[in-house]
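Task: complex structure prediction.
Instruction: return structure tokens for all chains below.
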Amino acid sequence: MINNPEEVLRMNTFEKIKAHLSHKTVGIAGCGGLGSNCAVALARVGIGKLIIADFDVIDLSNLNRQYYFFDQIGKKKCVALKENIQRINPDVITESHDIKLHPADILSLFYSCDIIVEAFDLAEMKEMIIETVLTEMPHTPLICGLGMAGWGMNAQIHSHNIDNLYICGDEATEISPECPPLAPRVGIVANMQANVALELLLKDMI
Amino acid sequence: MKITLNHTEETLEKENISISDLMAYKNFTFKMLVVKVNGEFIPKTKYKETTVSDGDDVIILHLMSGG
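Output:
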């Protein structure tokens, strides 16, 4: 923690960013394609604490987009993601929860978060967290990933917000056997979510 | 009446309309939705009883799987 104003003046911009982010907490609901890539981006820039949650196990089919390695197949995603975050930036405090999230869990696990990132795959889970956060935690920004299946179409991916609800994605493509989720577009949206989080977290940086 | 639907101005012949009728009129058939009227979140159970009137700002967000 850096509180001395003279020391702040001497720091370069990235050092300032890291010092500022070291006090911040981001909750990530889901550790799949969106959650794993978003968590890694936030860890690299020096987020203070990540609260991650997922109940799933890593499968070979996940490696086309999710931030896991071949030798982690069969492991719990929440455990493997914590390991990967620690290998990238051991300064990040990672609180990992092996859980299928319900509305009450979202309130109890993420109440201390500055920002919540929605990183579920299923539309009904996205709906559940949006409803929960908008009604129970309306002052906490929620960053959702909406529409990222397939490939190409860079220009269709965008971000916008409705009050405290932030949307990243193309808002059009839905996953199907013909339109699978793949590393490039899922990674773009996950990193876009991290970028929105950064923008919000750095608003009050000196 | 004129409303704003998803940031676009929309003119409707009726003087007011329920959220469910508005969705039927616009052919919004998605099952997973988030609705806000003038910034207020409207739960699914209130789509029939919530009416939209002239000047209202309506957001109907479609949710699709993927992540």
